[in-house]
């Protein structure tokens, strides 16, 4: 069983080891198994039957209320009223593909691009982050005439055929595709930036020798599935400069860190003082209404469009654009980037305080409201089983988090950006109680 | 310039040949060019600035009203009130990824699968038809251990890297990928079914000889971008039987013909009396709210899910499922399949009547509300320029249609399924006027 398999299994419901779910939940699990079962794993040993949500809270069929520290898609809050109103108004007014002129679509494109540094001046809308990364790979192969990519060892960039190839965490137990090299995530002690750049250089050389050539370095700028790597800010710069020096593209996958989550501007790459060639967007972009995008220089998107006549039927449609515009309004008008920085810092402080009380809490990493906590056993070794016990223990205390990392031992905490300090207090107290319960 | 390039160019706005657009439209075109320009071609010599829509009508910024015979996505009508209400209610109640139990998602999966013959008993939700076809290709390669696919010469199956490879119409002027064989669409005189099956056999043999092997036959069951092939019903059966005999999968791409459009049941493959191994869904599934899906036997989806740990963040989310459930309700309660058959028949009759009056109108093909009309010149030769004149002439008369076919000379007519006979009368009269105007 590989690392990524472990991550899934940790969080996943498994009928074989489930206790008494109650008749209603058991019936719903069975109904699901008979329809969407094969491709739709449930979370937790006791799955949640969710009926509504608001802000940072999920409500279940049995009247329960769960504090959501897991879901980064509804980043301006579950059922955000402004987003809900924008969607309701737009779906009743106009929703169609983008081969015509539309105010809301153009207004959103203007607003979105205004959040990027000037050379990144064009956007192609998609429906998902996977589709965005699928396009990004092609931008790089067309621009460089090469086909090789460097990614991190437990990276996840999406679910299309091409993107699965560059997502080692989706390929449990399988060899990497010939045109892909995986290097360790920049987590650990010492000069992580230097080490990361050296690994990129070696991987690029290997790609050159294999004949594929080095087309691009594709990284999630917060390294979500690798276990979260954030510090020191700037550590990615050396690898980016090296990539450019080798004539390859730096692709910033902002599907997870983007839209203010890191608390230091809108985009994760900004923390590193670098300029990507291509940026990919997804998850929180429409607060759950499907929309993704690729932001790049005009020349890159033009060459691609002419090469394949790209069009995406639902991409950037008026309803998705209206939702996405409302998300930008919420982030800006409610100061959610600053909130992510402030509440995220308070969260990390609380977790580090717990670390002084409990041996099982190791390194606490992150930026803004994307936080990873190493769960460790004797001698600081990764302890995935203890992480699993904590995740399910928190679930029993009505708090939702997940797992990440190559060893599956990293607590993954990425709540809606509207999280407040009082919610952090609830979580830290509950985690403390779980740790005391053992 | 290849055939598919011609199709795009026919419909596309080109600044270089545009006349006076008016200041407002010109400004909007410029704004768009500066943001989503490269990947977002506009339709028509004079693009439409659309502000709202209802039923089969689009409304423009200058107060115009356009009869929409092009858009197959809002198939239960633009801004369908039931869909709009379902979306508004759900987005204000709950919208989140599907790792939990949800009533609306499970209810939709039940209802959707009930429209399929029994062996097709599981669904994987995606966000787009492209993502669905991307999954379908992998189901076939995993199930057969082979990698080769047979498609038609002007096929379009979507926009991911893998799906672009099996979409010859997306690869203008380029050689096909080594694992793909393209055969003529089953359009023409004589025994089209026999000829099509023979071409499949030859392509499969070529794939076997090349070492790729024959993994699957992937066809749009109404052959939309090839120029629409519908008759005689049943002609696909021989190719499907042959495919199964060779141990390969028959993948029915129902993104365009599905959800009742052909007027003969919910799915295009039903007209042919065959049982696909995999069916892919998209476009009209949520009336414009992004949702797609792959319906297949449990064993195929199970092997795939175990192979790549497939998950799609937005796939089948509660808002998309609620929209899709409302679409099924509309189709069933308003009798839209029967309406497609009836109004579609009336439309073809009207077009054939025009064909007796005008030499430029050649073969009229189709099923239900998917209709193709060959525009021909001297001796019946395809005449793409005349088709373009008709399409833009109709646009000037406030009616929207498109172009299709390997020669770009096929009028593509696929209105919302709520079309009525009075709308057909408007269209046929306008087309008659365009033909008389020359």
From TrEMBL, chains A, B:
Keyword flag Amino-acid biosynthesis: no
Keyword vocabulary terms for this entry: Aminotransferase, Pyridoxal phosphate, Transferase
Keyword Transferase found: yes
Protein name per its UniProtKB record: Aspartate aminotransferase family protein
Pfam family, one: Aminotran_3
Annotated GO MF terms: transaminase activity
PROSITE patterns given in the database record: AA_TRANSFER_CLASS_3
InterPro entries in the record: Aminotrans_3, Aminotrans_3_PPA_site, PyrdxlP-dep_Trfase, PyrdxlP-dep_Trfase_major, PyrdxlP-dep_Trfase_small
Protein family: Belongs to the class-III pyridoxal-phosphate-dependent aminotransferase family.
Domain of life: Bacteria
Requisite cofactors: pyridoxal 5'-phosphate
